[in-house]
Structures are given as C-alpha cells and as structure tokens.
Specification:
alpha/beta
Length: 336
Amino acid sequence: MRQGIDADLRVLPEESIGAALQYFTGSKEHNVVLRKIAIKKGYKLNEYGLYKGKKLIEGEDEKRIYKLLGLDWMPPEMRTHTGEIEAAASHTLPSLVGFDDLKGDLQTQTDWTDGADSIEAMAKEAKKIGHEYILITDHTKSLAMTGGADEKKLLRQMKEIDALNKKMRGITILKGAEVNIMKDGSLDIKDGVLAKLDIVGASIHSHFTLPEKEQTERLVRAMNNPHVDIILHPTSRSLLKREPITLNLDTIFRTAKATRTALEINAHPKRLDLNGELAHRAKGYGVKFAISTDAHAVHELHYLEYGIAQARRGWVEKKDVINAWPLKKMMSFLKK
C-alpha cells in the first residue's frame, strides 16, 4: 500500500516569488477578493505577479503588491477572508503575538503522574529554551489511569517545588495542577488545597457526550470557581481520535471574560485546542489566553510554536496572552 504525502511542485522565476508567496499562502476566498480589488484598480493579479495590461508591475515583493492594492501587508496566518482585508484597508490590523514573545509554559506534566521526566528536568529544559517560569500541572486524583494526585500528594509536590526553587537560578517553578472537572462542574480537589497553588488549570477528561446545555453549564460552573485560573484544552478535542465536546461557545467566552478565566490554546499536535478560528471568536469577547505545550516530556516543551501559530491565525496579540507577560503582571491578573 502506498503511503505518504501528495505535493505539487511549482517552479517560478525569481521576479514572481512575492506573488507566488502571496497566492499560495492565502485561502481561495482571500485570493478571490484580492483579484477583484486588482481588477477595480485596473490590474490583473495571479501567482506570477501584478500586471498592468501585459506589463509586470510587481511580482518579487509581496508587501508592495498589497500596497499597490491599497492594503497593509498582513502575516500569512491571517489570510483567511475573516475580516483581514477590511482591516488592512483601514490600517487596523492587529500586531500578532510573536514566536519569541512567550515567557513561560503554563501546562506541563511530570513523572509525578503520567509524564516521563522529573520537575527538575522539565525546569532545566524550560530554562534552556529561555523561559522565565514554568507551571507544573500534573493530573489529579479522579484521572486514576495517570496516577493523578490527591490532596496529600499535591501538598508533597508543593514542598518539592519550594525546595527546587531555592536551589535553581534563572527560572521560577510555579505550583499548579490540571484539576479534573467532574460531570456536575465541581472539581476533584478541595478548595483549601487549590488555594495553596500558584495557578490552577481545570479540564474535562470524561463525559464527552453530554448535551450542549449540560456540558456548557458544567464548564461555566468550573470557571466560576474562585480558584480556577485557566481552562485547559477547552473543547477537549483529540485530533484523529475524538471530536470536540458540544458547547455554547458564546456563553463560554462571555463567562471566561466575566470571571477572568484564561482559555488555553493548547500547542500539543494532538490537541491544538482552542484552534485559530475559536481563538478569533474568543478574542472578540475580550478573553485572555494561555498558550501551553501540555508537555509530558522535556522534548515536548518545544511544541509552543504550534500553539503560537494557532493564536496568530486567531488574530491574538501579545497583550491577549497572559504568559507573554512578566511573571508579576501575570500573577496580578489571576483570580487570587
């Protein structure tokens, strides 16, 4: 059986490289609108260049092509015909979060539960990457298959993190947990212990097929918990394995904004949740985001770029991402 990826190879002259980049990075809908704009201005636009009659006006510089069409240049991730052309025409394009903007990772698992590496090893790798902080978010007790932590185990882990912070330099290890959201929206760890953590993430790992109303109420109750700071992989999708849960997303986004609960853009290739489209919708409500790797081993700490790419597709800016902020500013935003 043949396996692999089908690909088309296009070889174009150097003077057409900018036009080709524009053409092949934009969606069909984006390109159709650009060609209509070109026609109105007396041009013809294709993958070879911008023409006036038969004369090539510009093909090498895609930024100049956009300028000649009366538009600001936009990053390729935005070229999806979701309002970017109107924003480019009115000079109101957002300044997207950059690939070097994040200062820390806000979801990581260690060998305390189902991760492969120790807290210290994860922190050392995060420091090598250039992070200023890393949040440890091992699973909690109702996710028994992972060896999830109960209250006593979480308290023991907090002591280990305190000891590591005294020993390590150049990075802060934050105490957290990926607390399981139960069917009724309650959490599987007592509030008194959650209050001792620096940052609390909460997520759904069961009852994926609840009706929309019940599932939405479940997540809303979790966000209204005064200790929950981030909802991790909010739609619970697992790519090629499980579809997203059914939610009234407008209600979820409104509640996240009202309760100051950040929503995660999970960078793990198996998740990518929220995706770019949903991040765009959530941004419209004023939601703040956490971009995290969901790393279960040191090499997975390098997945952040995939989450940043999803955020950029969603028009997310640095100001929208809590872990693009210095530690003090991020901690002051959180509910505690």
